[in-house]
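Appendix B, record 7
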Amino acid sequence: MGNVKCHVTNASESLELMSQKEKLSIFYLNAHCYNVSQKDEEYRACLNEADMVLNDGVGVDIGSQLFGFRFHENLNGTDHNVRILEMAAQAGLRVYLLGAAPGIAITAAEKLCAKIPGLQIVGVQDGFFEDSQAVVREINDLKTDVLIVGMGVPRQEKWISQHFAQLDVKIAVGVGAFIDFMAGKFPRAPKMMINLKLEWMFRFLQEPKRLWKRYLLGNVMFFYYIIKNRLTHGESK
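Structure tokens (predicted):
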């Protein structure tokens, strides 16, 4: 999509690739991520160097059409990360949760293990740490296979990219607020709003003071960047 790559795939194909590759970095691209990438070259490089970038949300779906293609389905992280963890449980892989406020990841781990039979969450760490090397050592010492990192965009992508070579994991995923959602900190949108592609509006109404710039001004900026990149780069290949 202009100067940012995003893979055209579906849920089953992406999970199959994850099961085949020895090591993968996986990020998501939504309208907010796209906006951040246009102002942050380091973050944009993280996206373009990642092994897999998955489309998340109605914004990038509409934007893709301006570049002459369409995504097969919406791979929003709230749903697709659960699929990744279900795959991990079936394969006997060990999972580590990194991110969110103190105490949140522990609650999320408990609820995820209750939700997904056989899921092994071997460690958790909140996102408020100073010694990254100590975190990397713990992740490796626990023989982690799947690393779930929820520290917000662009911090989580930069952290994964900076430490990926040191991490002895099979999969590292940047998941945004997924850990918060799984802990029950924020309720999920009603099914009707999800089907109508209005989940973003439900999320905005939960935290309007914090999210108004992202969703109101951000939507305008997203289409500005999309049109600008379409004129500059032409259709995507």
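Remarks on this record: The mean pLDDT is 95. The CA atoms of residues 35 and 225 lie 7 Å apart.
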